[in-house]
Amino acid sequence: MTLRPVAEDDLPALERFLTEPEVSSPFQWFGWWDIRRWRRQWADTGLITEDGGHLMVVRESERLGFVAWRKISSSRTTHYWNMGIALLPDARGKGVGTEAQRQLVRYLFAHTLVKRVEADTESENFAEQRALEKAGFTREGVLRSVVFRDGRWRDGVRYSILREEVAPDGSPATASIDASTSGD
């Protein structure tokens, strides 16, 4: 499983998340809106800018979904990344989300100066919470009534990972420390 830039022939796979409710359900369907946005952004920027981007999650030639990140400014001089993932239904529940998020964190720390990457999910999305924890993220807390979806307000959960918590291979830094000291 790898991440790669979005190619023009990937756009129909991305657009499925905007046009097929069953692909985005149960946690990412927010109704139909601007179904050509990714096509316009791809034509303009290739879906990667200084303020964020999208990468495809693929296994060989199979498209599994995408990861995305966006810049969050926390002060005049400081920013960090907020990231997310959307997987096609057939890719869910197989460890793809954990690995894709681990790879995106490694990519962002390798190619930008940020110290923090965060991710948010709905409080009822237990699979995503497990995936983030397996990828080394720390649960920070609940955001009350932060998402309106399917007729009601829903709580979210925020996770983060800091640069020093990630080993060069993308695994949690504590795992590499534990492994290197286990023979002592």
From TrEMBL:
Gene3D superfamilies: 3.40.630.30. It comes from the Bacteria. Pfam families: Acetyltransf_3. Residues 1-164 form the N-acetyltransferase domain. PROSITE patterns: GNAT (PS51186). Keywords: Acyltransferase, Transferase. Transmembrane segments: none annotated. Belongs to the acetyltransferase family. RimJ subfamily. PANTHER family: [RIBOSOMAL PROTEIN US5]-ALANINE N-ACETYLTRANSFERASE, GNAT FAMILY, PUTATIVE (AFU_ORTHOLOGUE AFUA_3G00765)-RELATED-RELATED. This is GNAT family protein. It comes from Streptomyces siamensis.
